[in-house]
Amino acid sequence: MATKVTGIRSSYSGEVLEIPYSDKIILAVGEEVIFKDAEDKEEYGIVEFLNRDPIDAATISFTSKVLRKATANDIQKVDGNIDKAKVAMDKCKETISRMALDMAVFRTGYSFDGSSVHFMFTSEDRVDFRDLVKELARVLKKQIHLKQIGPRDKAKMVGGYGKCGRPLCCSTWLGKLESINMEMVRAQALENKGSSKLSGSCGKLLCCLKYEVESYRHLRKGLPRMGSLVVAKKSTALKPDEKLKVFAIDILNQRVKVSTENGEVHTLKVEEIEQLNSKK
Does domain 222-275 have CATH number 3.40.50.720? Predict the structure, then answer.
């Protein structure tokens, strides 16, 4: 039987920790808790989900567990850490600017006991931040942790709204991020849409390009390729021996747009054409 897990978003790291589900403490989604993390330290977090399959079974933290529901004193302590984190964020940005490092810090979190500060940043390249860690440790008098993540992981953590007007899939229900590539774009005949229409808030290809790609691949099997030559069947008003060039494909409606040698444009159903170079 697969292990069910509870997901807790850590105030320190900002990430969701998946721990084995237990009903010893009755919890609800959105509840504030104190839990033991993978390093056996007490941390504060918010319950994201309960008693469900893990996003990634390989990353379940079997040594972690919920210790208690957060008390008023716990929450007061966390509120104080949030104010300190804002100061630490400003110090970090100032230091990055002074050192001319190519990185953008977007999140800072204090550990529950206040001994460590966790910074998350994005960058186009790998960054040598050893001197930055030393300087922050000197200024803040805390143990410093820096973590670089990609733009898709940042969008998943920060959240927002997609082109459809709904909350981002990655930050609500999607779970593990899967690879999206241009082959999926071409399979759906979307390569001419432009990068701005195909990119999400993270700047990468939209995750939703994967949702219908298998259906498009199935529907596209009987359609000619872009730029290929076809002839119209006798059931149409076109000359049956005239070569027509395919310049647009409507996969869902199973239609193609073709141009004649004289430049005339016609829309034909797939059953109204015969392919001349389908083997290519």
Answer: no
User: Taking all residues of the chain, what is their mean pLDDT, rounded to a whole number?
Assistant: 91
- Quick one: tokens of 273? 């054409």
Helix %, strand %, coil % of the chain (to 5): 30, 30, 45
What's the chain's length in residues? Answer: 280
**Rounded Cα–Cα distance for residues 139 and 127 (Å):** 21
Q: Which two tokens stand for residue 271?
A: 């059953």
55 within 8 A of 49, measured Cβ to Cβ? no
What pLDDT score does 178 carry?
Answer: 87
CATH dotted code for 75-149: 3.30.300
Q: Strand order of the sheet with strand 65-69?
A: 16-20, 5-10, 42-52, 32-36, 65-69
* Span 175-194, average pLDDT: 87
The ranges of the chain annotated as CATH 3.30.300 are 75-149
pLDDT tens, residue by residue, 4-49: 999 999 999 999 999 999 999 999 999 999 999 988 899 999 999 9
Phi, psi of 272 (to 5 degrees): -95, 5
Which residues, including other chains, have CB under 8 Å from residue 173's CB and lie 6 or more apart? none
Which run of H or of E encompasses 119?
strand 116-122
H-helix or E-strand spanning residue 81: helix 72-99
**If 0-12 CB within 10 Å is exposed, 13-18 middle and 19+ buried, where does residue 2 land?**
exposed
Decide: 253 and 222 in contact? Cβ < 8 Å: no
Q: Are 150 and 72 in contact (CB under 8 A)?
A: no
